[in-house]
Write a structure and sequence with these properties.
- The chain is of the alpha/beta class.
- The chain has three domains: about 15-120 and about 190-470, Glycosidases (TIM Barrel, Alpha-Beta Barrel); about 120-185, Oligo-1,6-glucosidase, Domain 2 (Oligo-1,6-glucosidase, domain 2, Alpha-Beta Complex); about 480-555, Golgi alpha-mannosidase II (Immunoglobulin-like).
- Helix content is about 25%, strand content about 15%.
- The protein contains 14 helices and 19 strands.
- Helix 2 runs parallel beside helix 3 (about 95-105) and helix 10 (about 365-375) packs parallel to helix 13.
- It starts with 15 loop residues before the first helix and ends with a strand.
- The structure holds 1-deoxynojirimycin and calcium ion.
- The site of calcium ion has 6 residues, from loops.
- 1-deoxynojirimycin (NOJ) binds next to loops.
């Protein structure tokens, strides 16, 4: 085994997942090392230095969350797993994985795998057995129910990707439940044998070096065992914008099909397995319900003793980000999270790229940089989505280029998620922007900006992020400090992060006009990243912020 590289930065706190900065990689789109058009583990290994070279270079992230790379028929690009303990040949081999772990750990990067445990692929051998009849050894491993007397599905539950959440299996004469595609049958978490099999999956990857797990749809494991109909949603009820508009679930409140109280018990079960090896967990707690309930739900899962280390909701995947919205989300989270720890991301592989999504008065570039700076200033673990450092934009996908089952199903009303999953643009001078060496990539390599160009521009998002990550490492208050709102004045928002020995003040101007505000005290040091060229001025207590100005000061 090779020795760790020896860059000395301030160590992460004891709970490393609280102070770490995460970076999400969508492996299919990161880097294609064997030129077959599909990103792979070899490609990630090649590019680790971009993320953190272990010697103080690269972006400086601490942990990677990998979207799934396990064997899969790719009906939902890996969120349909047909073998939980192997690597899909599209992405490499178990040996590649071992090398990825070794090379990441050597650089001080932790590895977080995406576990899709609510459902498997229909091609998983468990389902192939289960579907045969009512008496086989896996008969109760999925959620089966008889048709209604008229032959229709057992209840009114709808699938996120369209149509009924039930598909009839003629061999067995019953319907099976799938909250997503018919190719993604829901596992029956009430069966202890299923839970044990999934626990063994967790143990397999912990033994192979995983430091943690992102839990896909972690609030879907439990369902109402009486299979009661979901109630109709009252008209005009508030729905959260989550970047996946027109969610068909919105016709009904998902009262009986997800977010069941007993789901927390299943999370507890998993937590015990994670604790066997000190692995951490990040739950995806998605909800289409109103903002208040989504925030409450997300915080419920991370209170100590409740289960997850971290959980994120879709609260920041909105369009109209402004000071009031942000302050509200932070306040409600603080009020309800108790002894849990928040987790924030502004985008992921399921929602529109933030630079295209946020309505920011036509000046998207500055707004995206300011939002990233804020993300890294909040109390809570930040997750950066791959490509944010090169301002990756939402791509206008055409019908011929569609890959995502959601887009295929709902075209043209919903164009799906391909637009936020383009190949990473490594180098503008190379074919396919350096994603590979010529084979047509699975989605077009079409981002406006490439990394070589971002590196050449001292004010690019790459440099802003890199500098901010270095600053964050130096100041424990930014990592672990408490949060306190100081001022909300129209388009300006000011808050503090504080530890016993340190108070940092953060201010942001969400408007396209210059704004001046009076701070409650004199700030002695301006620590704002120099790469962020929207310079603020400070004179005694008066802080002047340009359009989309961001200020970081030490009291
Ligand atoms: C959430 C994942 O992030 C998404 O990509 C996937 O389609 C669904 N869960 C189903 O697994
Ligand atoms: Ca490849």
């Amino acid at each position: 085994m090779q020795k760790p590289l020896n860059f000395k930065s301030s160590p992460l706190s004891e709970n490393w997942w609280e102070s770490a900065v995460f970076y999400q990689i969508y492996p299919r789109s990161f880097k294609d090392s064997n030129n077959d058009g599909i990103g792979d583990l070899g490609g990630v290994i090649e590019k680790l230095d971009h993320l953190n070279d272990g010697k103080g270079g690269g972006l400086g992230i601490d942990a990677i969350w990998f979207s799934p790379f396990f064997p899969s028929p790719q009906a939902d690009f890996g969120y349909d797993v047909s073998d939980y303990c192997n690597i899909d040949s599209d992405y490499g081999t178990l040996e590649d994985f071992d090398q990825l772990v070794e090379e990441s750990h050597r650089r001080g990067i932790k590895i977080v795998l995406d576990l899709v445990l609510n459902h498997s692929s229909y091609q998983h051998k468990w389902f192939q057995e289960s579907r045969k009849n009512k008496t086989n050894s896996k008969a109760d491993w999925y959620v089966w129910a008889d048709p209604k007397p008229d032959g229709s599905p057992p209840n009114n539950w709808l699938a996120v990707f369209g149509g009924a959440a039930w598909t009839f299996e003629p061999q067995r004469g019953q319907y099976y439940l799938h909250n997503f595609l018919p190719e993604q049958p829901d596992l029956n978490w009430y069966n202890p044998a299923v839970r044990e099999a999934l626990a063994d999956v967790v143990r397999f990857w912990m033994k192979r070096g995983a430091d943690g797990f992102r839990l896909d749809t972690a609030n879907y494991y439990a369902y109402d065992r009486q299979l009661r109909d979901n109630p109709k949603r009252p008209e005009n009820s508030e729905l959260i914008e989550d970047g996946q508009e027109a969610n068909p679930l919105s016709q009904y409140i998902t009262k009986y099909s997800k977010d069941r109280p007993e789901n927390l018990g299943f999370i507890h079960f998993l937590r015990k397995i994670f604790d066997e090896n000190g692995a951490i967990s990040i739950g995806e707690i998605g909800s289409a319900e109103g903002l208040e309930s989504t925030l409450k739900l997300g915080t419920d899962y991370v209170k100590k003793g409740k289960g997850l280390h971290l959980a994120y909701t879709f609260s920041m995947f909105n369009k109209n980000m402004n000071t009031e919205y942000l302050e509200h989300v932070l306040r409600v989270t603080e009020e309800s999270i108790g002894d849990g720890w928040p987790c924030w991301s502004l985008s992921n592989h399921d929602c529109m790229r933030m630079i295209s999504r946020f309505d920011c008065f036509g000046e998207r570039d500055g707004f995206q940089q300011m939002m990233l700076l804020l993300l890294l200033s909040l109390r809570g673990t930040p997750i950066i989505y791959y490509g944010e450092e090169v301002d990756m934009q939402e791509y206008e996908i055409t019908k011929d280029e569609l890959r995502d089952p959601q887009g295929i199903r709902f075209w043209p009303d919903i164009k799906g998620r391909d637009g936020c999953r383009l190949p990473f643009p490594w180098d503008s001078k190379l074919t396919n922007q350096g994603f590979n060496s010529g084979t047509k990539p699975w989605l077009p390599a079409a981002n406006k900006l490439s990394l070589d160009q971002a590196k050449a521009d001292s004010g690019s998002t790459f440099h802003v992020l890199q500098e901010m990550l270095q600053i964050r490492k130096k100041f424990p208050a930014l990592q672990n400090g408490s949060y306190q709102k100081i001022l909300l004045d129209g388009d300006c928002f000011v808050f503090e992060r504080k530890t016993a020995g340190e108070t940092m003040l953060i201010a942001a101007n969400f408007s396209t006009e210059e704004q001046s505000i009076n701070l409650p005290y004199k700030v002695t040091k301006d620590l704002t990243p120099k790469a962020y060229k929207r310079f603020c001025t400070i004179k005694n207590e008066l802080l002047t912020l340009p359009a989309f100005g961001y200020f970081l000061g030490d009291k």
